[in-house]
Design brief:
single chain, 534 residues, alpha+beta, Immunoglobulin-like, TolA/TonB C-terminal domain, 5-stranded mixed sheet, 24 strands, 41% helix
Length: 534
């Protein structure tokens, strides 16, 4: 299944090839350029179905050639027991994929809504128009339609003074402005010749289909450029048809300027209609029609066949290309770092699948590891090194970038247990202090902290008199200067008086800084204070 980025890359290659071919054919006829652009847009849209139907050809590439930046995997912030429980799902790519899908759907919906609004305005304008009853227009349209090979066409006069366009596929119609009856015979001939050329060439249907493709690929600027160029080339192709019928270029340009002045398409939905005089392209079209060196002849069948062959030669390989990183096994590689950014050599990692297959790899002097080739799927990656939190995380290998990982291991937390003992109210005396336990899982390039100030919790008098005892589990954070920056009780089953006494004492503890590669770092500490009555 192709990813969003893969879809963008494949469709962009075909669309860019069509635009490049159009630029290379600037000395040829506009009809040929229009055909190449239309074929390129539809070929780019066919990438997805063609990739599912055509047999694939593979180009094996190492994952580091595919990946711009490796996927980052960070060890858990608290100790995770290495048990046989199901690991948490990997959150590496799914949320991003969902976000991209929602963003794409929103863009498609916005583009589709714009087209639907344009169609609604166009249909309403057509229904409000009246058939043009002028014999002069009807006879000219019938005569030119017969010469163009076009069937019956509806001539509709609108109430708007700025509407002149053609639309429709099975029942095409030409929308005319309210003042069209006053036009000269020469202008009527030019307008109808131009609009009937649009109908003969099926320009409206092609443009609407291209706009639908653009709505799907709204995120790709190449499709916006291609659709704009497609509309411009269709107008020039119809201009060439008018000039080929014997109309002098200067006369045609003069009529076109007058029409543009009187029929500015301010109220016309340009996305769903083909206006004859669009101001944004008028200057370019007049320059082209006054250039006697441009070719205006329709392309031959041999030329059309050659152009389509070249376009297929680009489209089919792009659609059938497969990257080995998506289909076959590849080495699973990466680098292991500590929190300071230093590499960790000598770390043993294990990767296992659901069937129980395991592979191991050890980082070299530069912190890099490489597993034997493994295929796509979900695996459990784990490691354990003294002084760091053990890593156990589910990884999903699907996209090429997933085969390259940057793994950061976090420093292990400290653990300390303090027992505060008191005799019951009937007796006297205080239990002797108990020494704190040592730091756990310290090794490698970590220098463990040492407690330099120890404040014993005080048994609350009310709790002691009432005969209450209990255990207060807490999590504390030791800052880079060795002071306790935060303390929180991690159980709701603790009396508030006992919790307050334990927290007040732990806040006053002081340690030497924890050094990771000689750099002070923050570290978590698990503290258990037991208030016990003898």
């Amino acid at each position: 299944m192709m990813t969003v980025l893969d879809l963008i890359a494949r469709s962009s290659i075909v669309a860019a090839a069509a635009l490049a071919a159009t630029a290379a054919l600037r000395g040829r006829s506009a009809a040929l350029r229009h055909l190449v652009l239309a074929a390129g847009i539809f070929a780019a849209a066919s990438i997805v179905p063609l990739s599912l139907l055509l047999p694939g050809w593979h180009l094996p590439l190492a994952p580091r050639l595919w990946v711009a930046a490796p996927v980052v995997t960070i060890g858990t912030a608290v100790p995770v027991p290495l048990s046989d429980e199901q690991p948490p799902a990997d959150g590496g790519g799914l949320p991003v994929d969902k976000l991209l899908a929602l963003l794409w759907l929103a863009g498609v919906a916005a583009s589709a809504a714009t087209m639907l609004v344009g169609f609604r305005r166009l249909v309403r304008m057509t229904r409000q128009a009246t058939p043009l009853e002028s014999p002069r227009w009807a006879e000219t349209c019938r005569r030119l339609g017969a010469s163009e090979g076009v069937g019956p066409v509806a001539l509709l006069e609108t109430d708007a003074p700025d509407v002149l366009a053609t639309w429709g596929a099975r029942r095409p119609c030409i929308l005319l402005p309210a003042h069209c009856e006053s036009w000269s015979d020469a202008r009527v001939h030019i307008v109808l010749r131009h609009e009937l050329s649009h109908i003969r060439r099926s320009d409206w249907s092609i443009q609407i289909a291209a706009e639908m493709v653009r709505a799907v690929f709204w995120f790709n600027p190449l499709f916006w450029i291609a659709c704009a160029r497609l509309r411009r080339e269709s107008e020039q192709a119809c201009d060439d048809a008018v000039l080929a019928a014997g109309v002098p270029p200067s006369e045609y340009a003069s009529h076109l300027v007058e029409i543009a002045r009187a029929c500015r398409p301010a109220s016309l939905p340009l996305v769903t209609a083909m206006p004859i005089a669009r101001p944004s392209t008028l200057e370019w079209r007049i320059t082209a029609m006054l250039n006697a060196n441009l070719s205006r002849t329709a392309p031959s069948r041999r030329t059309l066949a050659f152009a389509l062959f070249v376009l297929l030669a680009v489209t089919l390989p792009v659609a059938s290309f497969r990257a080995a990183a998506q289909d076959g096994p590849l080495p699973f590689v990466g680098t292991v770092y500590d929190m300071s950014g230093g590499v960790l050599p000598g770390v043993t990692l294990t990767i296992a699948d659901a069937a129980g297959m395991t592979k191991t790899a050890t980082t070299d002097g530069s912190g890099q590891f490489e597993f034997e080739p493994i295929g796509p799927g979900t695996y459990v990656l784990s490691s354990a090194i003294p002084g760091f939190l053990p890593l156990r995380q589910a990884v999903t290998l699907k996209n090429p970038r997933h085969w390259d990982r940057a793994i950061t291991l976090q420093v292990a937390s400290l653990r300390e247990t303090v027992t505060v003992g008191e005799n019951r109210p009937a007796g006297a005396g205080v239990a002797p202090p108990m020494p704190p336990t040592g730091v756990l899982r310290v090794g490698g390039n970590i220098k463990a902290p040492t407690k330099v100030r120890d404040v014993r919790p005080v048994y609350p008098q009310a709790m002691r008199d009432g005969g209450f005892d209990g255990l207060v589990p807490m999590e504390a954070q030791i800052g880079v200067d060795g002071s306790v920056t935060s303390v929180r009780v991690i159980s709701a089953q603790v009396h508030p008086d006992l919790a307050k006494a334990a927290v007040d004492a732990v806040r006053q503890w002081q340690f030497t800084p924890t050094l990771l590669n000689g750099v002070p770092v923050e570290v978590f500490m698990t503290v258990s204070v037991e208030f016990k009555l003898d």
